[in-house]
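User: My collaborator sent over this chain with a note saying "see what the structure looks like." That's all I know about it. Can you take a look?
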Amino acid sequence: MAVAHVGFTSVGELGLLAVVLRYSRASWAQWVDFNASTATFGYALIHAATFFGGVPRRWMFEEPDCRVLAWDGHREYFASLLEAIADHMGSSLALWHERYRGPATRACERLIWATACPRRADLGAGNGVLRVALDDTELRQPHPRQPGRSIAETFAEERVHLLPLPASWTALDSWFEAENG
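Assistant: Without extra context I'll predict from the sequence alone. Here is the result:
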């Protein structure tokens, strides 16, 4: 089953939102305003699935906050917008309960060091640098648990296990890109 880890790390006024496929370790990431909304997290799932060419069966959130989870006094539950997006994609949401940092959190830390943190006014340029780092560098890296294989090789295997993108995806993705320039 294809599982994607979702993580968010703050750096001053900005945050780095990363999605990492569990098996291949293929990564997608985006710099966002630290005060990003729940919608930003929802559209991140859409952008990540578009980048991967398919939808993972489960989105595993690492260290979620109030933009991802809500509390009714008795239990935690995912924000309704994120539940609706996952349902539309045919996938599910889950929480990472391990005590150690998950792959998305580690990817955030690695990408912060690999790409300079942009200023708030330069988010577009910062995300351009991040795209180059992900496309040109990350996929060429050796897989951390499969000696002699690259992340790109394992990603090619994992891609066939992703669910197809929804038919209405393009309209949502175009709207998100127009809003964030």
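A starting point for your reply to your collaborator: The radius of gyration is 16 Å.
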